[in-house]
Amino acid sequence: MGTFESEDLQRKLQELTAELEKLRTENSELKATGGSEATLKKEPEVEIRATPAESGVEIASIQEGDITLRRLVQRIAMILQAEKIVIMFYEAEQGELVAIPPAYGLDDDKLAHFRVRATQGISGEVFRDGVPGVFHDATTDDRTRKDLVTLFHVNNGVTVPLVIEKRDEENRVVDRKTIGVLHAFNKRHGEDFNDEDVRLLERMAKNVGSIIANLQLYKAVMRENEELLQTFESLTSGLVLVSPEGKISQMNASARAMFRTDGEVVGSHYDDVTSIEDLKEFMASGLRGEEPTPIDVEVDLAHTLRDYQIQGAQVRNEDGKQLGYVMIVNDITDQKNLDKMKSSFVAMASHELRTPLTAIKGFSSTLLDGVDNDVYEKEDQKEFLGIIVGECDRLRRLIDDLLNTARIESGESLTPNYTEFELAPLLDKVVRVQNQASNRHDVKLVVHDAMPDTIIGDEDKFDQILTNLLNNAIKYSPEGGDVTVHAWLEGDDEIRIGVEDQGIGIPKEHLGRVFERFHRVNNEDNRKIYGTGLGLFLVHHLVNEVHLGKIWAESEVGKGSMFLFTMPKRLDIEKAKELNS
């Protein structure tokens, strides 16, 4: 991870953490007080004694808020002697007033159909003007036709605006907002609603509006809180938030993996969740208000060593008060391994380049020195020139490997040339060439099944696959050891080729990585065997991508290895070209 990426991630995490703490504070305040807007004042004219739960003084949860609102609606129906009470909330996106639960005298199914444009009906009129409205006959009043109240058997009613007010410390109204309307329908005993009913409903509408506003705010806070928590949890980087008291207030999945804990650690002191002293000192330093330098720690996870980079930042609110310390954990194991492989590759590539150049220069100088004096016979000159040509070919192969690897890594394809070619002559040729190139090994070909006369593929790249696998087998085999190319039929549609050696073998933990670029097994037996670590990487690409096959390795340390691959006998050229386009 680059410096700028790291700083950007650190900044974003710091902002997210501060926002989470802000939401937690708001959440706590809502739970504790329900907000000043929700406080219901005693109404002596109504002669109603509201309990704390009914008055909305304490809304401990969304469920309790709903219960509080439901009880208040029932109380309104009782006081106004109304058969139906309906709350309508304004939805700005649709521009409609929509009936919301809880209602009195209407079930939820009917309530779902009660909605009206904010420009229509008595509902829209009261919402727009902020002035209560009374109607005495729904069937003849033009204002009620758009409200469809006749469908709900409504005869008369009173409608008041739902208003929420914001007050300052001296209880003065500093802001007022209409969020909907409150209906009371059908006065019992055949009576009509009067001005006293309007005043009572207006007073109680303030309580209803305050509770609804707090419920909306509470839900919004909970939703934002949940979204932030999900964001933290899904981060690939580990995140640990420590309170000023040194207790863990947040830890995401990536961090829990690093700390090797599946249990609930929130609320625990950081000393209790890690035994790594450097990590403890890092967090302690951060909590002291310092800005510690990022550190690297090594952690044993399931007998596998992982490297982590730890960064930290102070978390403060808008007033600059310290809310704690956030620690960012990045797994840099792969990055470190890649850096090691690249360093090893540079050393190996340097050797691979220097060796043939040394030979070319040495034999060229020898021939040059003997030109005037006829020191060397024609046979010697041919031998020297043959060595020079061979070393030039070695250099060309190395350069081709480097160029091909760069093309693969950049997403470019090694342009294939698909044809139908004879398989047996190609196998014979590759084995014969390797026998000529190495007089220290016996390279054999064993055909186990009757192979097809021809297959479809890229003949040159098939040659390169076998050549690279044989070069690899010869390189890691002891002098005099056999190297065998096996050929089988794999079902009706595929061939299987294996290259077997009697070399030093590959440890189990490396079998899955031998096809990675730059990867080489580093032990006492092969430390002096040079190579770039690119040959098998290229082979993997040529088998899997170019020929739509599969390649794998089987090995036992001290007994040798076998590299096997399968590929179709009749390659689907169009499919292969599409994959490599």
Describe the fold and architecture.
The chain is of the alpha+beta class and 581 residues long. The chain has four domains: 107 residues, Beta-Lactamase, CATH 3.30.450.20; 196 residues, Beta-Lactamase, CATH 3.30.450; 74 residues, Signal transduction histidine kinase, dimerisation/phosphotransfer (DHp) domain (Helix Hairpins, Orthogonal Bundle); 162 residues, 2-Layer Sandwich (Heat Shock Protein 90), CATH 3.30.565. It is built from 15 helices and 18 strands. The strands form four sheets. Strands 3-2-1-6-5-4 form a six-stranded antiparallel sheet, sandwiched between helices. Strands 8-7-11-10-9 form a five-stranded antiparallel sheet, with helices on both faces. β10 and β11 form a beta hairpin. It is elongated. The two termini are 30 Å apart.
In terms of topology, how is this protein built?
Elements: H1 3-33, H2 52-55, H3 62-80, E1 82-91, E2 96-104, H4 108-111, E3 115-117, H5 121-129, E4 133-135, E5 157-167, E6 173-187, H6 195-234, E7 238-242, E8 248-251, H7 253-258, H8 277-287, E9 295-301, E10 304-316, E11 322-331, H9 333-370, H10 378-409, E12 419-422, H11 423-437, E13 442-447, E14 454-457, H12 459-475, E15 482-490, E16 494-500, H13 508-511, H14 535-546, E17 550-556, E18 560-568, H15 573-580
Parallel strand pairs: 13-15
Antiparallel strand pairs: 1-2, 1-6, 2-3, 4-5, 5-6, 7-8, 7-11, 9-10, 10-11, 12-14, 15-16, 16-18, 17-18
Helix pairs in contact: 1-6, 3-6, 9-10, 10-14, 11-12, 12-14
